[in-house]
Design a protein that fits this description.
Length: 371
């Protein structure tokens, strides 16, 4: 990865944030022939939401037809598999079962199937309990929706591959470079970090959990990022054989999440989660953690043969949501800022942001080019 010359005064595009959204955007913009740098507050990329998630490659069945979340997820799913294959990122197109625990939930499966088909997701089908038993013998279900193009990816390896691809495209990566101030300039936006000042013709706000604060610094639109923590438990090594792939319940009726689900990772671990809890702090991953007993009922609802002694507490992550707990849904914010015309917003990228990242990058690059 080439380092940016600390004496350089200007660049075509500065991207704020080196999560998957920022890296994918920088890569796409640089491939269009523009000079690009990425400012990252941490010493390494992807240390927040990008690597603190389930690592699921979603197919695009959950969000309203025509929304950015559905459109970019479906596109991103295809781009993700191609990228991971080309860059040798550990991944698997393992498929997913969204299960109905009883007969009363079967109508909801039908609705999910219809929405997925309207979104252009291929291969979806309703399957019976015999099919589930063959694929996931230990899973409780009276029926399920099969999503064959869902999968898993090693999120940390994906971030490393994106950084490598950015370097190959000529992107300059600036770690430990938190944006401290900015002011408009005749030729763009002057950005200030503790180390330098950079004149950027355009700026992409891909700052994740801190996108609202960065937008304010840039003189852009005012919005609020609501940090929402999700916690995970893990099956004991002796019980990993109980799960073969991805097993999800029906999504929360509140709209706040997809439900506590089972994920067999690329490394063979089996995770259970995430939970959902809005909180004040954007960096609190460990305070007031749930006890392992909180995962027992969700685990037993999905899986036969699990006891409390089979579960261990695992990691946690924080989603960057654009809606408060009193509201059910907000789409991604990906467009040119209405107040600061040199700024492109790529904010509120919660699930399915990992899957959609390469498609988000394409869209951001298109907006940058249409200046």
């Amino acid at each position: 990865m080439p380092a940016m010359d600390r004496g350089a005064a200007s660049i075509d595009v500065a991207v704020i944030g080196a999560g998957v959204t920022g890296l994918a955007s920088a890569r796409a913009i640089a491939r269009d022939g523009r000079s690009v740098c990425v400012l990252e507050r941490h010493p390494r990329p992807g240390l927040d939401t990008s690597t603190r998630n389930s690592g699921v490659i979603h197919a695009g069945i959950y969000h309203p037809p025509g929304s950015l979340k559905s459109t970019l997820c479906v596109r991103g799913n295809r781009l993700m598999y191609a990228f991971c294959e080309a860059m040798r990122v550990p991944h698997a197109r393992c498929g997913k079962l969204v299960v109905a625990a009883d007969e009363h939930e079967q109508d909801a499966l039908e609705s999910l199937l219809q929405m997925g088909r309207e979104n252009g997701v291929d291969g979806l089908e309703l399957v019976n309990t015999q099919f589930v038993a063959q694929r996931e013998p230990h899973v409780r279900a009276v029926a399920a929706l099969l999503s064959p193009n869902s999968g898993i990816v090693d999120a940390e390896a994906y971030v490393r591959a994106l950084l490598q691809s950015c370097g190959e495209a000529g992107v300059a990566f600036l770690p430990d470079s938190k944006l401290l101030a900015a002011e408009p300039h005749a030729d763009g936006v002057m950005l200030h970090t503790a180390r330098e000042s950079i004149l950027a013709g355009q700026v992409v706000n891909a700052a994740g959990l801190y996108a609202d604060e960065v937008s304010a610094l840039l003189g852009g639109e005012r919005f609020t990022i609501y940090p929402c923590r999700g916690e995970y438990a893990e099956l004991a090594t002796s019980k990993r054989h109980l799960v073969n792939g991805l097993v999800y319940p029906l999504p929360h009726a509140s709209g706040h999440g997809l439900g506590v689900h089972l994920v067999r990772t690329t490394g063979g671990e089996v995770w259970l989660g995430p939970t959902i809890q809005y909180q004040e702090r954007k960096d609190d991953y460990d305070g007031d953690r749930l006890p392992v007993e909180a995962f027992v009922e969700p685990a037993q609802r999905l899986l036969r043969g699990v006891t409390p002694g089979d579960l261990r507490l695992s990691g946690s992550g924080i989603r960057a949501k654009l809606h408060p707990p009193t509201e059910a849904y907000a789409d991604f914010l990906i467009r040119r800022d209405e107040r600061a015309v040199r700024v492109v917003q790529a904010a509120g990228i919660d699930s399915p942001g990992l899957t959609a990242s390469l498609a988000i990058g394409e869209r951001v690059a298109w907006i940058i080019a249409d200046c």
